[in-house]
Amino acid sequence: MARPAVFQRPAGVPLASACCYGLFMRLIPLLLAAVAAPAFAQPAAPAAAPAAGPLRVDINAGLTQPMPIAVPAFAPGNAGTTEAGTTTALGQRVAQVIANDLKSSGLFRPLDPAAFTTTVGVDSVLAPDFPAWRTIAAQALVTGTVTANPDGGITLACYAYDVFAGSEIARQGFVTTAAGWRRAAHKCADLVYSRLTGETGYFDSRIVYVSETGPRTKRIKRLAIMDQDGAQHRFLTSGQNLVLTPRFAPGQQTITYMSFENNRPRVWLYTLGSGRQEAVGEFQGMSFAPRFSPDGQNLIFSMAVGGNTDIWRYNIATRQSVRLTTGPGIDTSPSYSPDGSKIVFESDRGGSQQVYVMDADGGNQRRISFGEGRSASPVWSPRGDYIAFTRMGGGRFGIGVMRPDGSGERLLTNGYQDEGASWSPNGRVIMFARSDRSGRTGLWSVDISGLNERRLATPLDASDPAWSPLLP
Amino acid sequence: MNRNPLRLALLAGLGLAIAACTPTTTDVAVAPPPATARPETPATTPTTPVAETASSLVPGSQDDLRQQAGSDTVLFAYDSYELDAEARGVLARHAEWLRANPNVRVTLEGHCDERGTREYNLALGERRANSAKNFLAGQGIAVDRLSIISYGKERPAVEGSDEGAFAQNRRAVTIVMGG
Asked: Which of A222, B29, B61, B158 is the most exposed place for a label (fewest CB within 10 A)?
């Protein structure tokens, strides 16, 4: 039987887009016109807000009492089949991805599909059977359609409803390649999350990290990348060279990291897509602890020369470097504020590791951490409101947060070794690596409230996670 | 022969540390061996011809350094890069050995225990390697024969998360790079 045209990859779309990680995939948001208004019984025009006020998740209280939400299988918009499966199969998988995203936030409690007393078909997407959803106490309903397009791609239509008010909360459509169905599902989950919490979503994002295997005395470490939910995992480097501390460029096409290639430990750049790896600069000493500036034009990192470690800024285009700290101590782990005006870093200039802030040109250096023990590895939140750090004391490492002026310090986690904090794109969740005394290490995340601590499964042991910005 | 009972006793006492150091050196062999690759480590490969008898040590080799100096490793206190009297004694013998093997270059490897953050430990390991390098330079060894590398907490000498393991992992190791 001849394959219908929808199997073919659309012309002009790079091969990579149909591959495993959707790097170049274009997601075209689609405004879903309310064409079916007659079928959709709005209680009152024009606002959809019920008398009791809009359905809303309190992002703090929500973690102790997550909102019950129903995410039934998305309806097939047509009987098409794509490279990624039939529209019916995709509709089921889309719903699973969305439910898993919402559940992982700790703010939502997706209801067991076995308890559903109704389904949503293509004809009822715009007019779901609200009484049936009320009987299982769903407060919100996420549903939609998956339609196969003639070019082989799909259109995912995403609708969210306030079940008790019987009103629509949000709707958006996404046109993408068949392989891009996961991203479209994450976008739908982000839409629901943002409408119900008032915060930006973070589900359409990725994690780069260091995959670890082998005995501790000769650990093999490889760069690996995956979706934020652990899907679409792949390795970026072979394990031949020891690699550490990968971090995304703001455009997320590039990763900066440290490699021991040729027994010469220094900062490298990895270009996603091409797989190109390039050493950064020719320096006298060891360069390490790299991060990008928010505009992506500069790197900041540490350089160790003659027993002294300082922080440098390196312009990627001009290859010019500027030394930002000059003291005799160890100055490392620099991280820009999101507006690029300041840099937070750690220094032992006062006797032990503490957190300091300076202007982006190195001026006005001042200590901001004064808590017990040592405070290290600071990372500025993408929202700018917090700095995450590693607290060491009593033989244990925990992840904490403080305000950029050092006030409001709170410890969120406590483990044998919790370190390597990285922020979700919306500054709401922190991912970190947790190691135990046996040397096993894995990735965990925690809400900035300190609640909803959960492990993210990886194929092997894992450390040094870095969360990408939201994908474009 | 440049051996005495004291050094032999020291060697025996450090036997565990020396054996456990071996993975550090063999690990680098995972990379494609450059021209200056370290020689294989006979201590863990008894079938290697050079290790058939203790008396057949190749002059200027890693094993020769260990045998003559009693150890290729010096240890540090927690979060310290200061060389204590024992470490200075070992490094003085490394300097003596380097003077006797004038064509040999060495790399000083700095290592840390796991009780520090990853990036800080890279810097601390560099300090330790640099301390050892400066001591050898102070003994008259030409600095172009001395290079350093820090592994931070990435290459412990021994497994384990107790003080005994930590003490062996806080170290600088003199690695023979060939002539």
From this structure: B29
Please indicate if any CB of chain A lies within 8 Å of the CB of B26: yes
User: Are B26 and A218 in contact (CB < 8 Å)?
Assistant: yes
Contact between chains at B23 and A306 (C-beta distance less than 8 A): no
pLDDT tens, position by position, A397-433: 999 999 999 999 999 999 999 999 999 999 999 999 9
**What's the ipTM?**
0.89
Residue in B122, B148, B151 to test binding to A, most A beta-carbons within 10 Å: B122
Q: Which residues contact A293 (CB under 8 A, 6 or more apart)?
A: A299, A300, A313, A336, A340
Nearest to B161 among A263, A390, A437 (CB): A437
Q: What is the 3-state secondary structure (H, E, C) of B32-61?
A: CCCCCCCCCCHHHCCCCHHHCCHHHCCCCC
Angstrom distance (rounded) from CA A315 to CA A125: 52
Instruction: pLDDT tens for chain B, 179 residues: list them.
Output: 344 443 433 333 333 333 333 333 333 333 333 333 344 343 443 344 444 445 578 999 999 999 999 999 999 999 999 999 999 999 999 999 999 999 999 999 999 999 999 999 999 999 999 999 999 999 999 999 999 999 999 999 999 999 999 999 999 999 999 76
Provide the domain limits for residue B14: 5-28+37-178
Give SS3 for A274. Answer: coil
User: Which tokens is A235 given?
Assistant: 């390795």
Give the end-to-end CA distance of chain B in Å, rounded to a whole number. Answer: 22
Chain A positions touching B27 (Cβ under 8 A) are: 217-218
CB A443 within 8 A of CB A433: yes
Query: Which domain CATH number covers B49?
Result: 3.30.1330.60
- Report the residue from A220, A285, A376 with minimal CB separation from B120: A376
Residue of A209, A212, A213, A216 for testing the chain B interface, max B β-carbons within 10 Å: A216
The full set of domains in chain A, from first to last, is 5-197 (3.40.50.10070), 206-467 (2.120.10.30)
Each residue's pLDDT tens digit, A28-71: 777 776 433 333 333 333 333 334 567 888 777 667 889 999 99
* CA-closest candidate to residue A398, choices A355, A450, A349, A347: A450
Contacts of B149 in chain A (CB under 8 A): 263, 265, 286
Question: Which residues in chain B are contacts of A435 at CB distance < 8 A?
Answer: 114
Contact B83, B74 (CB under 8 A): yes
Domain count of the fold of chain B: 1
pTM: 0.85
